[in-house]
Write a structure and sequence with these properties.
heterodimer, A: 93 residues, mainly alpha, flat, B: mainly alpha, Cytochrome C Oxidase, Chain A, two-stranded antiparallel sheet, 21 helices, 2 strands, oxidoreductase (chain A), oxidoreductase activity, acting on diphenols and related substances as donors, oxygen as acceptor (chain A)
Chain lengths: 93, 649
């Protein structure tokens, strides 16, 4: 029975619900903009990672290395683009 | 009445009417010709529905050559307009349209399909695979690209061409300053073609990662495949930016959103920013496969293995990251602070380091090589000094303080043509000459080929060297005319002569194809250049299944080892081969995209909705379709192999 019960997936599902609830708090509670956005960013990235690893099975096949390289490369490019754009158009304008 | 007015060309001239008539006549001639020779069935069965990577590749090639002609005509028109002061050949609106379409056609509809042709034709052959990972998607990529190209070229005769520059910066590109449908064409045609490119990027990455022959680890791949891999990684990460950007631009123009407006919280500079977030990686998408081709050609004709394989790969990986952090150098003068400009200045100069590593690797490959001066090799050897000249002026432009002097002048125009023509165009023609016998079973004439290379180089130098000087003297780009007092006339006339000489070299290239079809020997075997990698290990012409037996590889130049060092390439025995079926659905779906795009350009909403449903139906059909492909039997393979080995019946 123990082998049949998808413990990891159920835990993952519960955890993703918790993350959603935490993100919702930003709407219902009176937070400052900075705190609210920090909470949203952290929960969003954790949520994305959770989906990728638990529900989309990244890391469970022989492609593990390729998939993670790809994810980190994508993250790197995205962060460089976002911070570069902020630098150009907001911080140093 | 208002509705029909938008279909008229806003700024008609004798040239446009002439083009309309000639396009109409050419279409008519094609339709009548195909009907007369009863080729419709052949066209449908063998080409339109094909999923064979080699045939799709050749269709990309034909499109690229056609667009090279079109973009070239644009270039000659511009050079003629500027060859004399106060020239009235093109008025300013027409000139705007010509330089805009010249840029887009040359980058997106000539250079991109040309490299995609090499990806398609060579990647599966070089890694010892039978097709790409997703053959049906590959056909869809081609047809989406083709329809985007068609839609873009239609703008010339229906509604007017885009006229806001190939960069199409806002606010110039908004409805107020660009009131014709031209910029709508830009947004939607490039969107459709771009989706095709994105799909093929994913396709090639998967092919390279999953379908390599046994024994071919990543570090044993031929250098062209490596460069194609890196270029496609950049495609997959850069093109989504373009997709989003064009979608935002479309919404601004058609639905009144405020992404790039100057009021209501819009930010017009965001367009320039995002455009170059895509645009700079795009130039590396073009140049890396060109570098890959040079690596193949130089090592083949220096008769040595490529010097510094690992550093070649490392420099490309570094470029794949660096190409994403230099984009601001396209708009140093936009108004951001010195800190930003300094950072991007340094990253830009840093990217010259991996490129320099590659240049030195080619030089060291040539060093002590037994060099054979064939036409492809001549292009490669001409490439090294000419490209380096462009690289050096690139470093000059990278200095953000000095860039205020160069920005938007002919100096810049000379620089980027100086890297793109010897970098990309030479590589394409060299690669075309190099792989021609593999594709068509005969070689292009060497004598005419060498004349072409020299004439092209002379024409190139005459066209673009004067622009460096006039640029430094202050001639702005994209200006349709200048006064005699400016003193640019002499050098611009030289430039026009150079452009004419380049046109002659293109005519020679076409003549060479004609001449070789008529006179070249067909008895050349499957390895006429004495080359090194797997694509030469199969027969010429390449059978549909590429390799009867999947090759086994132990080094970066498996075929050379087979010839010289006793490596055994084909160990297994012939088994039945699984191949994908042809399908007309990619073409049909792309046709829906074409009509959808046209209706979007002119805001004909009922047609937009109907064609959108058509696209979704095509996708749904594909999802539920049962198509398990087909098998080629052992007997059939053995017959083909015997015939290709030259057995007489």
């Amino acid at each position: 029975m123990k082998e049949l019960f998808p413990l990891k997936q159920v835990m993952g599902f519960v955890f993703s619900l918790v993350l959603t609830a935490v993100a919702l708090l930003v709407h219902f509670m009176d937070m400052s903009f900075a705190i609210g956005l920090t909470v949203l960013l952290i929960t969003a990235f954790m949520q994305a990672g959770l989906q990728l690893i638990v529900f989309m099975h990244a890391g469970e096949t022989g492609d593990k290395k390729t998939i993670y390289t790809n994810v980190f490369y994508g993250l790197l490019i995205a962060l460089m683009t976002i911070f570069g754009t902020l630098l150009i158009l907001v911080w140093d304008m | 009445m208002e509705f029909f007015k938008q279909f008229a060309v806003p700024h008609p001239s004798f040239l446009i009417y002439g083009a309309m008539v000639s396009i109409g006549l050419a279409m008519l001639a094609i339709v009548v010709g195909i009907t007369y020779f009863k080729k419709w069935g052949y066209l449908w069965r063998e080409w339109i529905t094909t999923v064979d990577h080699k045939r799709i590749g050749i269709m990309y090639l034909l499109t690229a050559l056609l667009m090279l002609f079109r973009g070239g005509v644009d270039a000659i028109m511009m050079r003629y307009q500027l060859s004399m002061p106060e020239n009235t050949f093109l008025d300013s609106q027409h000139y705007n349209e010509v330089f805009t379409t010249h840029g887009i056609v040359m980058i997106l509809f000539m250079a991109m399909p040309f490299i995609t042709f090499f990806f398609n034709y060579l990647i599966p052959l070089q890694i010892g695979a039978r097709d790409v990972a997703f053959p049906r998607l590959n056909a869809l990529s081609f047809w989406l690209f083709f329809m985007g190209m068609g839609l873009f070229n239609l703008s010339f005769i229906i509604g007017g061409s885009p006229d806001a520059g190939w960069t199409s910066y806002f606010p110039l590109a908004n409805n107020e300053f660009s009131p014709t449908v031209g910029t709508n064409y830009y947004m939607i045609a490039i969107q459709i073609a771009g989706i095709g490119t994105l799909i093929s990027g994913i396709n090639f990455i998967t092919t390279i990662l999953k379908m390599r022959a046994p024994g071919m680890s990543l570090m044993k791949m031929p250098m062209f495949t490596w460069s194609a891999f890196i270029a496609n990684v950049i495609v997959v990460f850069a093109f989504p930016v373009l997709t989003v950007l064009l979608a935002m631009g479309t919404m601004d123009r058609l639905f009144g959103t405020n992404f790039f407006t100057t009021d209501n919280g819009g930010m017009d500079m965001l367009w320039a920013n995002l455009f170059w977030v895509w645009g700079h990686p795009e130039v590396y998408i073009l140049i890396l496969p060109a570098f890959g081709l040079y690596s193949e050609i130089i090592s083949t004709f220096a008769r040595r293995n490529l010097y510094g394989y690992k550093s070649m790969v490392a420099s490309m990986v570094v470029i794949s990251v660096f190409s994403f952090i230099v984009w601001t150098h396209h708009f140093f003068t936009m108004g951001q602070g010195a800190l930003t400009n300094s950072i991007f200045s340094i990253t830009t100069m840093a990217i010259a380091i991996p490129t320099g590593v590659k240049i030195f690797n080619w030089l060291f490959t040539l060093w002590k090589g037994k060099i054979v001066f064939t036409t492809p090799m001549l292009y490669s050897v001409l490439f090294i000094p000419l490209f380096t000249l462009g690289g050096v002026t690139g470093v000059m432009l990278a200095m953000s303080a000095a860039d205020y002097q160069y920005h938007n002048t002919m100096f810049l125009v000379a620089h980027f043509h100086n890297v793109i023509i010897p970098g990309v165009v030479y590589a394409m023609i060299a690669g075309l000459t190099f792989y021609w016998p593999k594709m068509f079973g005969f070689m292009l004439n060497e004598r005419i080929g060498k004349w072409t290379a020299w004439i092209m180089s002379i024409g190139f130098l005459l066209s673009f060297m004067p622009m460096y000087i006039t640029g430094l003297d202050g001639q702005a780009r994209r200006m349709s005319t200048y006064s005699e007092a400016a003193g640019f006339s002499m050098l611009n006339m030289v430039s026009f002569v150079g452009a004419g000489i380049m046109a002659i070299s293109f005519v020679l290239l076409v003549y060479n194809i004609y001449y070789s079809i008529r006179y070249a020997s067909r008895d050349i075997g499957s390895d006429p250049w004495d080359a090194r990698s797997l694509e030469w290990a199969t027969h010429t012409p390449v059978p549909e299944y590429n390799f009867a037996v999947i090759p086994e590889v132990a080094s970066t130049q498996a075929f050379w080892d087979t010839k010289k060092n006793g490596h055994e390439l084909f160990k297994g025995k012939i088994e039945k081969i699984h191949m994908p079926n042809n399908s007309g659905w990619p073409f049909i779906m792309a046709c829906f995209f074409f009509v959808f795009g046209f209706a979007m350009v002119f805001s004909i909403w009922p047609v937009v909705i109907v064609t959108l449903i058509g696209i979704l139906v095509c996708m749904a059909y594909r999802s539920f379709e049962k198509d398990h492909g087909r098998y080629i039997s052992v007997k059939e393979i053995e017959e083909t192999e015997a015939k290709l080995r030259g057995a007489k019946k």
